[in-house]
């Protein structure tokens, strides 16, 4: 700990100062004065509460990044209000990580901290109102003001909501505003920490009765009070005090006795009052303790060979790519390597791209690792995430499985990081800042902690495979499916031909309908993939061509039939479904296109006896929705599962023998340089869900209007290397990754002309220094207006090699600052997305 000493000069006592990270988008640390009583106990990495801004009572949670005795030269430092942590909750290594992410991804360190810390570690504040004891009553009060003041006199302080419940119909905000003006009340901010440990009330016999003689005398004395005697006897049936007095000290959950209808609760309270029993509270973990039930994972010969090769390559490389086909059993290899890391005394982190995946894989992992393992993702409550954070810090959790945000956990002794499905775009955060990529952050963390990184995928990203081919990463291949399972048969269905022959039924080809029917007869399961949620992408009038459009964004409103509403998937705007065309009054308003909700609806009509379920963002908003859907499907309660891309990622179901893929052409022809790669990945991944058991080959039907497309032939043949070779030639020709680094700048403003002006000026200034081959744009993106702000994109390509990227980013940031400090352009915002996806 930094030694802090007080110096005295001119009878003025100099204090010490803390450099703080505040969760705001400002590119600097803030200096605050350390109160004298905190000097000896404040530590770097601890959280503090500080006032901020001119508004009275506005406070933030900040993290101490440095301590010194140099006062700021440009402003008067304010005092830290409160120290929240006796021991730091943010490690020194994490502070370095925050700085690196801030520099690399061109954002503010406060934005990094805001994302990194779970919400439960940040304080919340609530406005409270209290009676002003100095109020002189000279002001004339209305009846409403009198009534509200009377309530305040009877309470130390009340929130607006609490006052509203007490005074009924009175307009509380208006009355309080008036009372503030008359100096009758005081408004202040009550600050409290969000995290609250889960407490359980327990009960135990007073220690006097642990003595056998005293206990028998008690029971004898209670013979005339049979209800009280019954309470004591029931407690003893749970806690054998005589055989094990230590159990009595641990006590019994009071709720167990409270739930017993036969026991007199009043007798229990009397016994507590008479000090026969005593109550106490204990902190209970929110995660149930699970013991490991499986000693080790048995690997097949192919898996064992892959694991051995990985460990061999780790001797030379910090990062190794495991390129294993779908169903090859990569998870078993991961578990084997995690066990080795933990046995060696190191920590391990297992990253997954989707919460849905954690739901299924956690059960398998808990059997092996038990309560050594923590789980970390956004569907957990604030309190649950804080407990995992503190569990890693204390050493309770040596191993964590989680989604991208798990890279921010306070590990200090990592030995292994596994990034499963490393190609997945969901590892990249898009909004808000920092727009980091968890895979790349994990590699940097491993470099600092001397850990190893294993990247796993059946369809690696082009950039990762290129680095493996160049020898920058190790490469291990696993091209044999687990057990006797074989890769599925892939069939292309020509929808253009079926439409000509009129054999399509709604969105289903006759081939797919026949396959679904046969699967039903065999009592096997089917997965249907359509990467678009909702019922249909938009409504259109057949008479005047009116379409449903969002008033805030340049996109159509998606029709959601179950909710009976039109919804924008960008800003969340909702509208009622019009009964008539808003433009011409026609009744011929029709749905256009289709999403997962429409497919589910059509399946229920075509196969009324089939049990269908949908898995997309709309059906998985609730905390345990993923778990419930996957559990039902795993248990065979569902025949057909319709879903978006979340069903493509590593889910493992034995009874799935058929996969149907809709709208493959839209995936392939998306206007983006990675479209072909992503289409191959997505189609291959969802195809891999079929036929994962050995007794029957799975079948995949891909509906397309052009079966001759090269990319589809590569999917059929599992020709990843062919895809890689073609993509690499094209990307080298047009200067795209892995040959360049991309930085996308998005300029935003509520007026299109100002937005264009700022974007054109920024592009010109960047081009003057970087050259026209490196700077593309500005151009309007596919969706040129979101939340009433117009957008222009500037793409910057910087070749890999001797270029100083840090200097390039500093130059770009300087040019951005020039725009933002221009008086005519101050309302413009500019977002930098480094390594954009």
What's the architecture of the largest domain, going by CATH?
A: 3-Layer(aba) Sandwich
- State the CATH topology of the largest domain: Rossmann fold
- The CATH superfamily of the largest domain appears as P-loop containing nucleotide triphosphate hydrolases
CATH class value of the largest domain: Alpha Beta
Q: How many beta-strand elements?
A: 36
Oligomer: single chain
3D shape:
globular
* Count of discrete alpha- or pi-helical segments spanning 4 or more residues: 26
Structural class, by secondary structure, is alpha/beta
Q: What does this 3D model show about the protein?
A:
With about 850 residues, this protein is α/β, with parallel strands linked by helices. Helices cover about 35% and strands about 20% of the residues. The protein has 26 helices and 36 strands. The strands form nine sheets. It has a seven-stranded parallel beta sheet with strand order 16-17-15-18-19-14-20, with helices on both faces. Helix 11 (about 300-315) packs across helix 12, helix 22 packs parallel to helix 23 (about 710-715) and helix 25 packs antiparallel against helix 26 (about 805-820). The radius of gyration is 32 Å and the shape is globular.
């Amino acid at each position: 700990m930094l030694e802090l000493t007080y110096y005295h000069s001119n009878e003025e006592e100099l204090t010490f100062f803390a450099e703080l990270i505040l969760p705001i988008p400002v590119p600097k640390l803030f200096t605050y004065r350390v109160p004298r009583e905190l000097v000896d106990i404040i530590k770097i990495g601890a959280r503090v509460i500080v006032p901020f801004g001119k508004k009275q009572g506005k406070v933030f949670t900040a993290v101490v990044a440095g301590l010194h005795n140099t006062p700021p030269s440009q402003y008067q430092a304010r005092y830290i209000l409160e120290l929240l942590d006796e021991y730091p909750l943010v490690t020194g290594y994490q502070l370095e990580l925050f700085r690196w992410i801030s520099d690399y991804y061109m954002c503010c360190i406060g934005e990094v901290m805001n994302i990194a810390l779970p919400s439960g570690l940040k304080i919340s504040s609530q406005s409270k109102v209290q009676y002003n004891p100095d109020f002189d009553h000279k002001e004339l009060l209305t009846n409403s003001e009198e009534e509200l003041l009377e309530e305040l006199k009877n309470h130390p302080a009340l929130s607006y909501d609490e006052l509203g419940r007490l005074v009924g119909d009175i307009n509380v905000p208006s009355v309080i505003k008036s009372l503030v003006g008359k100096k009758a009340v005081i408004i202040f901010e009550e600050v409290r920490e969000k995290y609250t440990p889960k407490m359980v009330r327990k009960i135990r016999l007073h220690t006097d009765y642990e003595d056998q003689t005293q206990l028998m005398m008690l029971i004898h004395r209670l013979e005339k009070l049979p209800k009280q005697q019954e309470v004591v006897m029931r407690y003893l049936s749970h806690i054998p005090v005589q055989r094990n007095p230590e159990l009595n000290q641990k006590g019994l959950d009071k709720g167990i006795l409270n739930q017993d209808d036969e026991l007199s609760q009043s007798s229990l309270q009397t016994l507590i009052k008479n000090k026969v029993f005593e109550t106490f509270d204990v902190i209970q973990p929110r995660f149930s303790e699970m013991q490991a039930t499986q000693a080790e994972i048995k690997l097949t010969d192919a898996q064992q060979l892959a694991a051995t090769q990985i460990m061999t390559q780790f001797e030379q490389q910090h990062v190794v790519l495991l390129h294993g086909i779908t169903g090859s059993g990569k998870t078993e290899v991961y578990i084997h390597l995690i066990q080795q890391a933990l046995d060696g005394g190191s920590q391990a982190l297992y990253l997954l791209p989707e919460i849905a995946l954690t739901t299924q894989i956690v059960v398998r992992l808990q059997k092996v690792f038990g309560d050594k393992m923590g789980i970390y993702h956004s569907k957990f409550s604030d309190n649950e995430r804080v407990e995992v954070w503190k569990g890693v810090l204390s050493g309770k959790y040596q191993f964590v499985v989680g989604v991208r945000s798990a890279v921010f956990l306070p590990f200090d002794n990592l030995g292994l990081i596994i990034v499963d499905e490393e190609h997945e775009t969901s590892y990249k955060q898009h909004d808000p800042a920092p727009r980091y990529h968890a895979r790349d952050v994990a590699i940097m963390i491993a470099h600092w902690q001397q850990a190893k990184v294993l990247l796993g995928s059946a369809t690696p990203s082009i950039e990762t495979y290129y680095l493996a081919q160049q020898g920058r990463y190790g490469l291990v291949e696993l091209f044999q499916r687990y057990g006797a399972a074989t890769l599925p048969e892939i069939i292309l269905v020509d929808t253009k031909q079926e439409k000509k022959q009129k054999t399509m039924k709604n969105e289903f080809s006759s081939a797919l309908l026949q396959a679904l029917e046969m699967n039903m007869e065999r009592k096997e399961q089917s997965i249907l993939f359509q990467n678009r949620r909702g019922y249909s992408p938009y409504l259109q009038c057949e008479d005047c061509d009116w379409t449903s459009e969002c008033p805030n964004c340049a996109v159509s409103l998606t029709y959601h039939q179950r909710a009976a509403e039109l919804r924008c998937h960008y800003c969340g705007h909702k509208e009622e479904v019009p009964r008539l065309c808003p433009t011409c009054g026609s009744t011929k308003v029709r749905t256009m296109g289709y999403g997962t909700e429409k497919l589910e609806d059509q399946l229920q009509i075509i196969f009324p006896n089939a049990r269908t379920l949908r898995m997309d963002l709309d059906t998985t908003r609730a905390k345990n929705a993923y778990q419930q859907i996957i559990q039902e499907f795993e248990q065979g309660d569902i025949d057909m599962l319709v879903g978006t891309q979340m069903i493509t990622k590593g889910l493992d179901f034995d009874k799935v023998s058929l996969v149907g893929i809709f709208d493959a052409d839209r995936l392939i022809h998306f206007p983006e340089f990675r479209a072909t790669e992503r289409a191959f990945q997505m189609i291959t991944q969802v195809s891999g869900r079929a036929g994962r058991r050995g007794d029957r080959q799975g079948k995949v039907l891909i509906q397309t209007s052009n079966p001759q497309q090269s990319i589809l032939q590569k999917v059929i043949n599992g020709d990843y290397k062919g895809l890689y070779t073609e993509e690499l030639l094209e990307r080298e020709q047009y200067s795209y990754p892995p040959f360049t680094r991309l930085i996308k700048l998005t300029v935003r403003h509520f007026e299109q002309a100002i937005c264009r002006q700022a974007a054109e000026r920024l592009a010109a200034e960047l081009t003057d220094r970087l050259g026209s081959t490196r700077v593309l744009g500005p151009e309007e993106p596919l969706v040129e207006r979101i939340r009433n702000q117009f957008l222009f994109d500037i793409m910057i390509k910087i070749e890999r090699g001797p270029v100083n990227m840090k200097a390039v980013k500093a130059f770009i940031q300087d040019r951005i600052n020039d725009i933002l400090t221009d008086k005519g352009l101050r309302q413009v915002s500019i977002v930098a997305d480094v390594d954009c996806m």
